Amino acid sequence: MALTLRVNVRSTSPLARLKMRLIMPATQTASHPAGGNPPTFESVWAILQEVAASQKETDRQLKETDRIIKEVGRKQEETDRIVKETSKQIGTINNRFGEIVEYMVAPNLKEKFREYGFRFHDVMTDRVFSDDDDNTLFEVDVLLQNSEKAMLVETKATLTTEDVRDHVERLKKMRKYADLHGDKRIFLGAVAGVVMTLNVKRYALKQGFYVIEPSGESFNIISPSGKPKEW
Length: 231
What we know:
Helix content is 51%, strand content 22%. By secondary structure, the protein is an alpha/beta fold. The N and C termini lie far apart (103 Å).
């Protein structure tokens, strides 16, 4: 029994239909007629035009996709720029608030620390420590001192654990600087912040720092956990 292969030509792509049109006549024989006419110039030309039109549409879609990708990239660059600019502005605002906190707290710190047995004679703000070549080694927001001890206070609008870690390193540098200059005094640390989470406060106290926080129109000083850390 002879089998006849029937293909739905209309359901295939223009290029596939063109291939079938060109191949099918060569497979037809006198004893097995295909039941159709061989492709004409007009039918082949029509399919070629469809192929060309399909290719143009594909090219258009590729160009549109490329345009969208570039637009998304441009918008991402703009977003990154805005984020960086905003972060910079927030950093500037935080620094300014830190300065405000510093000048609000500093004048009263000497009296406040008397309650904890400290008798500091001098209070200095924005103290910069440099090497012999005038290169800045570190800075101290507020420095309270006498002939035996000195307290380094870091002030921030928003105090973070990173600020506390930085202050630990600052105290280490202070100890090294003091040793190089024959200063045998004991150095202690304190951190002040208008805003700080409970975890940050606990972390600072655990590091042996005094914590200074707002209380109404004044501020409170909280003693560190256990004995204050000495450098």
